[in-house]
Amino acid sequence: MSDRLSCIPHKLDAALRARLRDGAEADDSSAPVERRHGETPSMSAMDSLMGAFHRLRAGGEWADRSASDRWLAPRVHYALRLHRIEAADRGLFQWVALRYADYVEWRWADAKDAVAEDRWWGPIHKQAFARLWWGAELFRDGSDYRPVERAFVFQDLPNSYLHRPLIRCRSLALALVERISKSGTPSSDQVNALARVLNLATAGAPPELETGYEVDDLVAYDHWATTEISIPSDWGPLPAGPAASDTTAESLIGGAAVVDRGWGYANLD
Questions:
Q1: Residue 82 · residue 133 · CB < 8 Å
Q2: Whole-structure pTM value
Q3: Cβ contacts of residue 71 below 8 Å, gap of 6+?
Q4: Residue 216 pLDDT > 80, yes or no?
Q5: What percentage of the chain has pLDDT greater than the value 70?
Q6: Alpha helix (H) ranges present in the chain?
Q7: Can you tell me the distance from the alpha carbon of 204 to that of 191, in angstroms, rounded to the nearest whole number?
Q8: Which helix (H) or strand (E) holds 6?
Q9: pLDDT tens, residue by residue, 128-186
């Protein structure tokens, strides 16, 4: 496969995916992801990261496969520097999943060693790499990836929220992580009940009414996304993500108010 980020724009069936992976068929279906100045992002940082991941896994890390998400999500976001419009492309993440198919099969194979099709080509809360990237993008506090780690402690958080429009409000997303973390170990039913209540509560009154209109520093983000990555010699320390200007003290208070109200509506206390 190409050393440059590419996209396979149509869903592959299992047979073709296997042939491409084994090299039995030429990869004629992919096309490079080109940005406005014609450059195509390199996969060097992702290759380095996934190599480190596999070494740690071989050394006995992550007996619980889901626990690997909290380590990998922020680092995937750091290494795979995408604009949101690029990250909305299912074909891009299908290509990434095919490149690192060993990971997809390890993380998502069931008792019969089968991997659901939506882990290869699927929505952002299902696809193997999209859920990691988008989880980090939506739950980071600017350059601070620590809330991302906390979000992935509770698998129902990314699974039940990433695809919901309300979570695009980062102040609400951070308040959600904080509230659920403080509650101890909420059940799946509780996390999902809160998702349903917040979805209804924000349908007619978007969270921005209380957080204020939020806009990221798009110039700074574009610089971060297009700057050549300094590949860490050690992937252990948590890297720093792109700075953001949309989580002020006032917006976080507003996000917490929305979440607390939903918590009460769902009778979770």
A1: yes
A2: 0.95
A3: 53, 62, 149
A4: no
A5: 99
A6: 14-22, 44-58, 68-79, 84-87, 90-99, 101-108, 130-139, 146-151, 156-161, 170-182, 188-201, 208-211, 218-226, 249-265
A7: 21
A8: strand 6-7
A9: 999 999 999 999 999 999 999 999 999 999 999 999 999 999 999 999 999 998 887 77
Name which of 114, 100, 84 is nearest 45 in CA terms: 100
CB 49 within 8 A of CB 132: no
d(CA 123, CA 89): 10
The domain locations on the chain are: 6-265
Q: Provide the pLDDT confidence category of residue 87 given band limits of 50, 70 and 90.
A: very high
Q: How far apart are CA 132 and CA 151, in angstroms?
A: 11
Rounded distance between C-alpha atoms, residue 192 and residue 96, angstroms = 29
Select from 205, 216, 224 the least CA-distant residue to 248: 216
What 3-state class would DSSP assign to 59? coil
Listed in sequence order, the residues at least 6 apart from 100 whose beta carbon sits closer than 8 Å to its beta carbon are: 46, 50, 129
- The pLDDT value recorded for residue 146 is 97
Contact 94, 150 (CB under 8 A): no
d(CA 206, CA 201): 8
d(CA 98, CA 63): 23
pLDDT average, residue stretch 51-68:
97
The answer to whether 10 and 29 are in contact (CB under 8 A) is yes
How does pLDDT run across 227-245, given as a tens digit for each residue?
Answer: 889 999 999 999 999 988 8
Distance CA 207, CA 75 (A): 29
